[in-house]
Amino acid sequence: MKTLKIDNKNDGKKLITFLTSEFPSLNINYIYKALRKKDIKINGKRINENIVLHSSDILEIYISDDILYGAKNIVIPIIYEDDYIVIFDKPANLEVTGENSLTSIMKEKYTFLEPCHRIDRNTIGLVLFAKNQESLEILLDKFKTNEIEKHYIACVYGNILKKVDTIYSYLFKDNRKSIVYISDSKKTGYVPIKTSYKVLKENKKNKVSLLDVTLHTGKTHQIRAQLSHIGLPIIGDGKYGSYEINKKFHVSNQLLCSYSITFDFKSDSGILNYLSGMEINLRKIPFENYLGDEKNV
To answer: Which residues of 210-233 are buried (b: 16+ CB within 10 A; e: fewer)?
Structure first.
């Protein structure tokens, strides 16, 4: 969130004119989207119109910094790199592909760079890229045959009945609404999904837990929707979580992190055979600050 006070030289300007001059990298489509969602406040009041600004008005803009200032200004750490692959630590509010995405930004620094998988815009953490076509084809095949294992850290809210569990469900993706639905039984259009988790740390009093989540089938929004379905919504998830819970913790992005990638090759991997058995992790487990003082497993 960005807070600005309108000065005398901007008195009488229309909101959109002011925003496009103040933030040259800001696409006007994002402004219209923010107005539709009432993500802009004037003097504490949410607005949805291109109103006239006045001197001393307080403008609050709920648009992420990468959109306001341009994604190219974001620092993207490299966690691992060699001649064939690179693994980036993606921040929140950044798509893996598309315009002003992790891929488009980093492609400017490489002669060849393609993502081997995706994570959601507001999910942070490890994303694996191939640095040549041969590596890309091998890695895409290894993902299909489940020879690359991804672990996530999820900070969830609720009462956990099992410390270790594997969840089997069915998922339906509604492309029109950009949302998925979970069912415990097979239905027309639903596909089987599988997710495992184990509790790393928890605060039973506050009902907050850190889960190590293993994604076995890798469908859209699988972890977020499936955990919510069993009563463990990810804190900060605006689509599958709880508004009241998110407000309580003052979190607007889901507390979900792509934490670990393990290359568990079962068959020949050509030029990437050297990766077999290798595990790449972030150095620090995220979201521990949301647990509070009591951390009993």
So the answer is: bbbbbbeebbebbbbbbbbbbebb
